[in-house]
Amino acid sequence: MGKRQKEWARRAKDQLIVDLGGACVLCGSDVELHIDHPFGRDWQPRKLEFSHRISRYRQEYKMGLVCLLCAECNEDPENKPLSREEYETQRKQAQESEAPY
Ligand SMILES: [Zn+2]
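Above: query sequence and zinc ion SMILES. Below: predicted holo structure tokens.
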């Protein structure tokens, strides 16, 4: 993968994290955020190149299929996937908490 493509993907990922509210949906932490699929997914992120993965995440973001989890919540086996309703509520809160410039 080219250097420019890599830089694009990195920036796109940072932007996506901002768009998703910039914090873990479960505990509000902003440390080591991961893009999570609360309803599961039918593809393997590890099998895609980083930039392809980010493009896919962006599409899923537009469809409301991804959210942010911090490393701790992501690894917690007690952590159950969100219901669609909880997810929509948190997504709305994240959007409303954005500074109204
Ligand atoms: Zn968390």
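The helical segments are 3-19, 50-62, 71-75, 84-96.
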